[in-house]
Amino acid sequence: QVQLGESGGGLVQAGGSLRLSCAASGTSFRINVMGWYRQAPGKQRELVAQITSGGTTTYADSVKGRFTTSRDNAKTVVYLQMNSLQPEDTAVYYCHVRDLSPRDYWGEGTQVTVSA
To answer: Best exposed site among 11, 54, 78, 93 by fewest CB in 10 Å?
Structure first.
């Protein structure tokens, strides 16, 4: 079982930056992939970025070059550095973890609002 704790959302002006963090606790040695999804009002949840235990990263085309995901050395904390934020980045951002079962775990979500 994995528990996820998110932090770092908020309100920022267009062009600004935010950093999201998600700490996983529990059976951390079973964690495989960690990452972030987002869901804007009236839209489906979409992958933003993810990183595997081996360090391979994947990004949505819409955030490439602006967002960077990383993990700490213990591989239990995942970060999302968001630069050059735009109003279309406004959404609830969810931390996601997939373990080796594979089983998916989700955070409660953190609101990111970008004003024009």
So the answer is: 54
